[in-house]
């Protein structure tokens, strides 16, 4: 009559030998602790290298924007914002001629589109500034 594997293994058990871990070398443990401390210190210095202890009470806000960046960078940022909003208005005004025949509807849709683009641009600007300040 046939033998089935599950019937043969039904009452069996598996005995594994206990694994004995060798003791760690104390010199190696001391060396590893020294390396870990050195790496932690380097990471701490890397994280805190741009922290100015004299300005610890001041929080980075939008009012600090002009002081942190050069005048040229601020002018370029404002110009970029204006060009983006005007271009969004122009594109949506010209593109809405296929949807609306009246000028009023075209202007309203262009203003809405330019407002959405302007708000998105402001959001990106604020997030970029917060990233420059070291905050997520």
In short:
InterPro entries: ATPase_Vma12. It is a multi-pass membrane protein. The chain has 136 residues and is an all-alpha fold.
Quickly list its features:
136 residues, mainly alpha, 62% helix, 0% strand, flat, transmembrane, transmembrane helix, membrane, ATPase_Vma12, Transmembrane protein 199
Which band does the percent of strand residues land in? under 5%
Mean pLDDT: 84
Query: How is the main sheet built?
Result: none
Task: Kindly provide the radius of gyration, computed on alpha-carbon positions and rounded to a whole number of angstroms.
Answer: 33 Å
Please, how many helices?
5
Write down how many β-strands occur, each being a DSSP E stretch of 2 or more residues: 0
How many angstroms separate the termini?
72 Å
SSE pattern, N- to C-terminal: HHHHH
Low-confidence stretches: none
Shape: flat
Give the fraction of residues assigned to helices: 55-70%
SSE-based structural type: mainly alpha
GO cellular component, one term: endoplasmic reticulum membrane
Keywords: Endoplasmic reticulum, Membrane, Transmembrane, Transmembrane helix
Main location: endoplasmic reticulum
Protein name: Transmembrane protein 199
């Amino acid at each position: 009559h046939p033998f089935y594997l599950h019937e043969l293994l039904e009452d069996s058990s598996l005995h594994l030998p206990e694994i004995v871990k060798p003791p760690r070398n104390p010199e190696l443990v001391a060396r590893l602790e020294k390396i870990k401390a050195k790496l932690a210190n380097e990471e701490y210095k890397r994280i805190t290298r741009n922290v100015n202890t004299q300005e610890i009470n001041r929080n980075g806000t939008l009012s600090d924007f002009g002081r942190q960046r050069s005048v040229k960078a601020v002018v370029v940022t404002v110009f970029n914002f204006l060009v983006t909003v005007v271009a969004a208005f122009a594109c949506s005004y010209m593109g809405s001629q296929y949807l609306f025949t009246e000028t009023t509807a075209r202007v309203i849709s262009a203003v809405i589109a330019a407002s959405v683009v302007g708000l998105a641009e402001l959001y990106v600007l604020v997030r970029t500034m917060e990233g420059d300040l070291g905050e997520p």
